[in-house]
Amino acid sequence: MTELGQVEKPAVENFKEKRKLYCIPNIYIVKDAPEDYKELANKYWDEAAAQTEKLEAAGKIKKIFCESVHVQGDEALKTLSEINEQTARLIKKKVDEGAELFPVESKEIFGPFLDWANCLNVVRTQEVFSKVLEFYTEFSNKRLTHIMGVINTNLADGEAGMLIMRDEDRVKLQFPADIEIFLVTPPSYDDILRWFRAKMKDLQSNPAE
Questions:
Q1: Domain positions in the chain
Q2: Which of 39, 62, 126, 161 has the fewest CB atoms nearer than 10 Å to its CB?
Q3: Using CB atoms within 10 A of its CB, is residue 74 exposed (0-12), middle (13-18) or buried (19+)?
Q4: Is 120 helix (H, G, I), strand (E, B) or coil?
Q5: For residue 66, which of 92, 90, 106, 102 has the smallest C-alpha distance?
Q6: Whole-angstrom Cα distance, residue 11 to residue 47?
Q7: Cα 105 vs. chain centroid, distance in angstroms?
Q8: How many Å apart are CA 69 and CA 80, to the nearest integer?
Q9: DSSP single-letter state for residue 18
Q10: Distance of alpha carbon 192 from alpha carbon 40, whole angstroms
């Protein structure tokens, strides 16, 4: 994998003929999120956009792959706007510049995957948890296989693509050796992780009665 600082001339020439994938961890901004988190998340997406522009020295983005998308065209951008406005804004900018957005999810897989994930959050007994985890893992593996298939099929030789996906899922993808992976890691990403760790610590120290 390649870090941002390594993408400079003459190194750019080394990547020209390779397939390239710029990977951005997906950070969500829910409407009722605390203001301090919203500020961090907005800063994150500004930095991610700026870093992506620099990465395009190795190849202009032609294909876009984003989690949670199983529809195409304007409908996909509308769906993304409802889920994460910042993600949709970055993708629309790249589409306006000539990139194509591909639906990476299969509706038949993604729906059950979300349902089993939600079930894991509410079960209380170990026996039921183990059974639900089995089904969740099955659909998680199917989902990752499908996503990897979409990327591998549609990213042509010499092309650059952008993948927006939660980092904990992206690290499970088995990329072919001929795809060069570039990690987009804005400085504020660590700030967001620290924010979540602090919130978890507060919850553990002050559990709801």
A1: 4-103+156-205
A2: 126
A3: exposed
A4: helix
A5: 102
A6: 23
A7: 12
A8: 7
A9: S
A10: 6
